[in-house]
Amino acid sequence: MKNIIITGAGTGMGLSMTKKFLANDWHVIMGVHNLDKAKGVYQELVQKYSPEKVTLKQVNVGDSKSVAEFSKEVNTENSHIDAIINNAGIFTGGQLQDLTEEEWDRTMAVDVKSIYLMTKAFVPGMIQRRAGSIINIASVAGLLGDYSMPAYNAAKGAVVNLVRSMALDYGPYGIRVNNINPGATNTPMFKENPETVKQSYRDASPLKKIAEPEEIANVAYFLVSDQATAITGQNIGASMGYGIWSGQPKQ
C-alpha cells in the first residue's frame, strides 16, 4: 500500500484530498493542528475505509520540534512515504503597517517554513528509495499581487519559486515536486464570507464560479499519480481562471 502525508487534512481542501486518496486505496496520514476538532471526521473515515488505511496525527507544521516528533512517529510506523502534500496554511490580510510582527512571522512559518521542515524530515527517505512526489499548495496570490495581502502574497510567492529549486535538487533522485495554485475555493472558511463577497469572486472568474475542494483534490491526485511522471517544478493553476487577464479593458 502506498503512503501519503497530507497536512491540514481535517477540513477543506485537505479533507477532500484525504478522501480522494483513500478512495484510490492509499494509506493517508492526516496531519492536523487541532486533534480534537479532527477526531469526528477521522472516525467517519475509519468506519468507511478501515483503521489500516487512515492515521490521524497532530502536528504544528511551522514548529521544528512538533514536526520532528511527528516525523519520528510516522517514520517508525511506516516503512516508507511515497508522497507528501504540504496543504496546511493560513491567510493573513491587512496592509504592512497594520500587521504585527507576530502575524508576519506566523504567516511565514505556516505557509513557507513548514515546507522546509516537512521536506527536511521526509525527503531523505525518498532520496534513499529514489522515488517520491511532493506537492505544495501555493496560490494564485503567489503569482500576482493583491490589495491588502502583503504577508500572504510574500509567503505564497516564496512557495511559487521554492518549487523550482526543490524540483532541480530532487529530480535526480526520481522525486517530483509541484505546486497547485488555487484561487478562491469553497472551503468552510471561504463560505463564512457574506454572499456579496462570494458573488464578487464568482464574477471575477471567467467561468463565473468558485472552485470546489474536490476539484483541487482531483488535481493533487493526478500530479501524484503515474499519469504525471513528466511533470515537475510546475505551478499548476486551479483557480477558475484568475490571473489570465492582462487588465486591459474589454473592446
From TrEMBL:
The keyword Oxidoreductase applies. InterPro entries: NAD(P)-bd_dom_sf, Sc_DH/Rdtase_CS, SDR_fam. CDD domains: SDR_c. It holds the Pfam family adh_short_C2. PROSITE patterns: ADH_SHORT. Keywords: Oxidoreductase. Coiled coil: none annotated. SUPFAM superfamilies: NAD(P)-binding Rossmann-fold domains. Belongs to the short-chain dehydrogenases/reductases (SDR) family. This is SDR family oxidoreductase. It comes from Limosilactobacillus agrestis.
